[in-house]
Amino acid sequence: MKKILITGGAGFIGSHLCDYLLKKGNRVVCVDDLFTGSEDNIKHLFGNANFKFIKHDIVEPLFLDDTVLSFPRTRESSKIDQVYNLACPASPIHYQHNAVHTIKANTVGVINMLGLARKHGARILQASTSEVYGDPEVHPQTEEYRGNVNPIGPRACYDEGKRCAETLFFDYHRMHGMEIKVARIFNTYGPRMSFVDGRVVSNFIVQALKGEDITIYGDGSQTRSFCYVDDLIIGLVKLMDSDKNITGPINLGNPKEFTIKELAEEILVITGSKSKMVYRNLPEDDPKQRCPDIAKAGKKLDWSPKINLDSGLRKTIEDFKIRMNYAD
Ligand code: NAD
Ligand code: UDP
User: Fold this and answer.
1) What residues does the NAD(P)-binding domain cover (predicted)?
2) Collapsed DSSP state (helix, strand, coil) of residue 208
């Protein structure tokens, strides 16, 4: 049984990770400032003796002392064994809302979490992103590709922030011999996505279920590859538990690529919605193509995604219907 800290644990991916690690018999400390996350995502865990929630912004130093880390009926050490660092707003409208705070979360916040992990002798995993490749000129993207990021554009607070976070991880590894893991996560979707974070899967599902226009930005020919959250969680845990010489970065995502128009059509078919597709301006610096090369994850972690877009969307749409009180 490990003691595991998950920052951003009340968010979409983080709450699924809390569930998974608790089910595997671990103790989980979830730290989240609830900026984009919600207690709704973790309230089912509040009665679990192996779960603790701390409301905290990682930009501020975090001290986890014996009182905070004591769990009922245990005499074990109060050290954290593993840290998953997921705390960062992930959707463009949220990370651009306070761009400077997004940069702080990925620099000051990351330094705070690396320092905490170092003090505890814990292994630490960074939730990095395909956005480190920017608007890629290499396709599909391998981990060796160094990216094409506009350092002064509206997405830069996130893209450059995450790039700097990776740099910090590797510097702490070189300077202090820390055990680090860097996952480059590609577009992930599934139950518990926020209705209002503006990301494409949640926008299209909400619009289709409400019978509103489906807002396609640009002509809809830009591509993304969508990974179902359960697949991603297994990849993250495999990476965290891998041999200590495996630092990453490792791409985690589904290599099946779809245009945004194809995604809209698929959601319309599954929901049976009569919504119309309408075309809006493409946001600045919106990447034209994105698809992971996951050969490294296959070789080093024996991981590949198993859930295809159709079945993943069906599960996600069911969850949205329940949360929206949608009647068929
Ligand atoms: P999310 O917005 O649902 O989750 C982020 C969580 O972090 C939220 O609960 C939020 O309240 C919390 N948070 C934000 N800033 C914080 C801070 N300063 N201190 C403490 N908590 C803070 O997004 P998500 O999709 O679950 O993403 C989780 C992580 O995975 C993020 O780091 C994101 O960059 C990364 N990621 C996600 C995707 C994706 O497609 N979902 C793709 C690439 C990378
Ligand atoms: N997108 C869209 N309509 C929407 C929301 C997003 O066409 O209502 C597009 C967006 O311009 C981008 C793609 O869908 O090309 C994925 O956007 P998202 O914000 O989900 O993720 P990211 O751009 O970070 O991959």
Assistant:
1) 5-316
2) helix
On the question of pLDDT at 73 being above 70, the answer is no
Residue 253 CB less than 6 A away from ligand 2: no
User: Which among 17, 32, 240 is the best mutation to test ligand 1's pocket, defined by most ligand atoms within 8 Å of the CB?
Assistant: 32
193 within ligand 2 shell (Cβ under 6 A): no
* CA distance linking residue 304 with residue 251, whole number of Å: 11
d(CA 16, CA 197): 18
Report, as an integer, the average pLDDT of 110-126: 97
27 lines ligand 2 (CB under 6 A): no
Question: What percentage of the chain carries pLDDT values higher than 90?
Answer: 92
pTM over 0.70: yes
What is the average pLDDT score of the chain? 95
* Rounded Cα distance, 192 and 15, in Å: 9
154 prior amide bond cis, ω within 30: no
Domains and CATH numbers, the chain: 3-188+227-255+289-306 (3.40.50.720)
Q: Give the span between the Cα atoms of 207 and 198, in whole angstroms.
A: 11
